[in-house]
Amino acid sequence: MWAILSGIEGNLAAYEAVLADIKRQRVTVEELYILGDLVAAKPESEKVIKRIQNPLSGELQPQVCVGWWEEQCFALHGLGSLAEPTELIARYGKQTAKLLWDSVSRETVQWLRGLHFGFFELDCLLIHGSSVSVSDELTPQTPPWQMLDRLQRVQANSLFCGRSGQVFECQLQSASIATSVVTLDNKQPVQTVTTLQKRVVGVGNVGREAGKATYTLYNPKSARLDFKTVFYGCQKGFGS
Predict the structure, then answer these.
(1) How far is CA 93 from CA 44, 67, 155, 179, 207, in A?
(2) Burial, 36: exposed, middle or buried (Cβ in 10 Å; 0-12, 13-18, 19+)?
(3) Mean pLDDT, the chain, whole residue set
(4) Which of 49, 161, 189, 207 makes an SS bond possible with 9, Cβ 3.0 to 4.6 Å?
(5) How far, in Å, CA of 72 to CA of 76, rounded?
């Protein structure tokens, strides 16, 4: 069994609640994937990183990839592909950019830079956004052709993503697609591509909503999904 989560966003209490819920599962969880957005413009971001870096005895070592907030950290420190965190400022403003700078140290940013862009396990792509970028937000409203494009780029049958923060499963049925390239000179012959059944899964968000965390359990042998909801703090408990 795999536990797949995303979007801790500097919320240590939410992450602890999810770890506790994972331990309660009747089926043993053998792999723990965190699909980005470990940090955010929150003072507890450093504590979240330390907790991830130092799992307790008996806990799984998380496999972690970068997310949107990590990319904004890289831009702030001049370590990314962007010269400035324009996307961060446009979405949240300069005050949030300053808070993110204060919340995540240069040392931590250097550690984050060493994380993977995503994971390809069996026939599954596990990634924050998509095979295009961390900012690519797949939702149930995303056109099927766009979802198929993201899957076909890496020849995956299942794509697990966390950018939207939503929990969902979108299945793409087997089909044949006719494609052709038109240039200024002529039109290339039509090619037919047959695709097997595929799916895109939104794994939820751990830390964005106070008191409520969502994540996903996945059995790679049976391909079964189980979306989990954990309530913590004053709303302690768990559900599914």
Answers:
(1) 20, 19, 38, 42, 21
(2) buried
(3) 91
(4) 207
(5) 6
> How many other C-beta atoms lie within 10 A of the C-beta of residue 212?
19
φ, ψ dihedrals at 171, nearest 5°: -100, 135
* Residues whose CB falls within 8 Å of the CB of residue 79, separated by 6 or more in sequence, listed in order: 109, 110, 113
Q: How many Cβ atoms from other residues are within 10 Å of residue 204's Cβ?
A: 27
List the one residue out of 213, 203, 205 whose CA is nearest residue 233.
213
pLDDT at 189: 73
- Find where tokens 């056109």 sit: 143
Question: For the domain with range 2-239, which CATH number is right: 3.40.50.300, 3.40.50.10860, 3.60.21.10, 3.40.50.2300?
Answer: 3.60.21.10
pTM metric for this prediction:
0.89
Q: Tokens in use for 72?
A: 């904004």
The amino acid at residue 104 is: V
C-beta of residue 230 within 8 angstroms of C-beta of residue 213: yes
Which two structure tokens, joined as six digits, stand for 84? 């400035």
DSSP classification of residue 56 = P
